[in-house]
Write a structure and sequence with these properties.
Blueprint lengths: L10 E4 L9 H13 L22 E2 L2 E3 L6 E3 L2 E4 L3 H14 L3 E4 L18 E4 L6 E5 L4 E5 L4 H10 L2 E2 L12 H6 L7 H4 L6 E7 L5 E4 L12 H5 L8 E8 L1 E2 L3 E9 L2 H15 L3 E8 L1 H9 L13 E9 L5 H14 L3 E6 L3 H21 L3 E6 L5 H13 L5 E7 L4 E7 L13 H14 L15 H7 L2 H14 L16
Helix pairs in contact: 1-2, 8-10, 11-12
Length: about 500
């Protein structure tokens, strides 16, 4: 049985808003939850306030929901610690009582890492109250942030210090740093700044037995033993709870610009990317591929989003630049257009003439997922491929899916790093429900092709619970054995986000 902690204890909400001391009595409550499952009722009907107003996913009425609405799960207790010591108290109590812990960041994950599997109700551990900026070192390019800060808050803090944090994702106002690192999030600027892993220098985390890993270093070089930071990043809360991070900052580009360019094909888009990088190097911040279906969905569901072309082309790319003060982004993009047109790669284009127009281009790109949600996909796929295999995949996938049935395909994504969002929709006038029976065949078709071409079926969203079977099907057996051994060594009781990434034993 857990002993009382010597620090201020976290707020606890079993079912409805309610504070309990983290004490032997509460550990007994955890043990009861582990044995019997179900949301705990305290003084009336179960009720749990949303973690954050306006959240994409949320904890409401004792239930956690995934953003796409396909999956929901019950929770027993919601813990809201304010410090790393309080997180450690919760973890120690859960370890002693053998109660599972599901970490909750911003609730924006798309593969169910934040959604508990059926079975005994876990403790949902939200880091939303850990929102301190512990230190900013502008000259070093380092910001030390607690896990509950949203990405937007980190970006704003970096800007105030005359620097930038290079990660950019559509859910930046909701996604929290802890979850971003736990899933090794990507986004639109991976081409230039890398994934979350590349932007993290050190971590503070609570391990499955409640011990605190103190690793908030600010070093670019440190080969003193195993890099535990990289073990925890991308582990989706299965090896520990990230509570703070040393984040790498970059100089703010002096001048920015963007263009929407019509390309003849995905192969032409890749040739244009190579041309842009040859001319501008790391000045290319993002290079996004957009197929015709995305703008068509926007015109139907979100007509307020301005589009650069009267009729959406079959393929276009959004090119975004960040350049030194001596270079003119608009002139560089116009030169890229001319050279691309002469090579037969580009047929039309619009270069942003202001920051407002650049923002409009990005609004279009970042609104596509919402348009997808409103239309209703039969099956969505977050995949990555070697750049040279992308054109072949797109050709073969369309043909293979046509043998299963009639579908619309909305393909868009981060062409610069090989990450595509390949989403399959019912035909015009059809419904998602009418094709639900084909969902498994569609997913297998797409994923088999990706795997055969040397790609990944879990590109930037992670594995969570929804892709555990995919990891087992496509993952290297030796790698899977090593993952299971690492998890068993650090979390022998299996309490950390049980069922995520690796199948729960039993």
């Amino acid at each position: 049985m857990a002993q009382p902690c010597a620090v201020r204890e976290p707020a606890i909400r079993p079912a409805r808003a309610h504070r309990c001391g983290l004490s032997p009595a509460w550990a007994a409550r955890l043990l009861q939850i582990a044995r019997f499952g179900g949301a705990q009722r305290v003084g009336g009907q179960p009720r749990c306030q949303p973690l954050d107003k306006g959240r994409v996913g949320g904890v409401q009425h004792g239930r956690a929901c995934a953003p796409r609405g396909r999956w929901r799960a019950d929770g027993g207790v919601l813990a809201l610690p304010r410090t790393v010591e309080e997180v450690a108290c919760v973890v120690r109590a859960c370890a002693d009582a053998r109660v599972g812990i599901v970490p909750w960041g911003g609730g924006t994950g798309l593969v169910g890492g934040q959604i508990a599997a059926p079975g005994p109700a876990p403790v949902i551990l939200s880091l939303e109250r850990m929102r301190a900026v512990r230190a900013v070192h502008p000259d070093e390019g380092v910001l030390i942030a607690e896990a509950g800060l949203t990405l937007a808050e980190v970006q704003a803090t970096a800007r105030d210090a005359g620097r930038m944090f290079g990660l950019s994702i559509a859910s930046e106002g909701t996604a929290r740093i802890g979850g971003i690192l736990a899933t090794n999030a990507g986004g639109v600027n991976v081409l230039r700044y890398g994934n979350a892993r590349d932007l993290c220098l050190g971590l503070e985390a609570v391990l499955p037995d409640g011990r605190v890993l103190h690793g908030l270093k600010r070093l670019r070089k440190d080969n003193a033993g195993y890099d535990l930071k990289d073990l925890l990043i991308g582990a989706e809360g299965t090896l520990g709870i990230i509570t703070a991070a040393s984040l790498r900052l970059h100089p703010i580009p002096a001048r920015t610009g963007a263009a929407m360019l019509v390309v003849e094909s995905p192969a032409a888009a890749l040739a244009l990317l190579a041309l842009a990088q040859a001319r501008l190097g790391e000045g290319v911040s993002a290079f996004e591929l957009i197929g015709r279906t995305g703008p068509e969905f926007l015109a139907r569901t979100m007509p307020e989003v301005r589009q650069p072309f009267a009729r959406p082309p079959a393929w276009m790319v959004l090119v975004d630049l960040g350049l030194p003060g001596a270079m003119d982004p608009a002139a560089a993009l116009e030169a890229l257009f001319v050279e691309g047109a002469e090579a037969g790669l580009v047929s039309d284009g619009v270069v942003a003439q202001s920051e407002a127009q650049r923002a409009e281009f990005w609004t279009l790109r970042e609104s596509i997922p919402e348009a997808n949600r409103r239309i209703g996909a039969v099956s969505s796929h977050d995949i990555s491929l070697p750049l040279s295999e992308i054109a072949e995949f797109l050709d073969r996938a369309g043909q293979a899916l046509a043998r299963i049935g009639e579908f619309r395909i909305n393909c868009f994504g981060h062409l610069g790093d090989g990450n595509l969002h390949y989403n399959v929709f019912p035909p015009e006038g059809g419904s998602r429900d009418a094709h639900e029976h084909q969902r498994g065949a569609i997913k297998t078709c797409v994923h088999d092709l990706v795997d055969g071409l040397g790609g990944s079926v879990a590109a930037e969203h992670g594995v969570g619970r929804f892709k555990v079977g995919d990891l087992e099907r496509y993952g290297d057996p030796t790698a899977l054995e090593a993952m299971r051994a690492i998890r068993a060594a650090l979390d022998p009781a299996g309490i950390m986000n049980p069922g995520a990434v690796l199948r729960a034993p039993g």
